[in-house]
């Protein structure tokens, strides 16, 4: 990622594209059990999400179209990022949770349970 501007300097559409790329990298790393690569991509994804949230009007809304993305990891990450903003995100999370025992479905189930039990509140 050298020669690219800092996250805070990028326009929202570039951050959305980076969000997708990082989610796809997380899916690839998950599929190949590459924990280090997964964790590095996840940290960068959190930074992108935080930058979008910091922007006036909470630019995480730009991630809402990703709730219909064909890749399950992109959908999960978009739903997680927008749970506090939209009922559509909750519906997307429930849809992912219903898919069985892939790691994304397990993560979605865990997040929904934490919300229901009050141990986690989306912000």
Automatic annotation (TrEMBL):
<dbReference type="InterPro" id="IPR016024">
    <property type="entry name" value="ARM-type_fold"/>
</dbReference>
<dbReference type="InterPro" id="IPR042236">
    <property type="entry name" value="PI3K_accessory_sf"/>
</dbReference>
<protein>
    <recommendedName>
        <fullName>DUF2019 domain-containing protein</fullName>
    </recommendedName>
</protein>
<dbReference type="InterPro" id="IPR018568">
    <property type="entry name" value="DUF2019"/>
</dbReference>
<dbReference type="Pfam" id="PF09450">
    <property type="entry name" value="DUF2019"/>
</dbReference>
<feature type="domain" description="DUF2019">
    <location>
        <begin position="13"/>
        <end position="115"/>
    </location>
</feature>
């Amino acid at each position: 990622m050298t020669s690219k501007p800092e996250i805070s300097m990028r326009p929202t559409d570039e951050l959305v594209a980076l969000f997708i790329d990082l989610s796809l990298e997380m899916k690839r790393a998950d599929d190949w059990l590459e924990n280090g690569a997964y964790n590095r991509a996840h940290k960068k994804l959190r930074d992108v999400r935080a930058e979008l949230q910091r922007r006036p009007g909470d630019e995480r809304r730009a991630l809402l179209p990703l709730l219909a993305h064909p890749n399950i990891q992109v959908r999960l990450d978009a739903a997680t990022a927008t749970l506090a903003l939209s009922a559509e995100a909750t519906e997307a999370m429930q849809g992912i949770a219903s898919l069985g025992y892939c790691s994304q479905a397990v993560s979605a189930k865990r997040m929904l349970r934490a919300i229901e039990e009050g141990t986690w509140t989306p912000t």
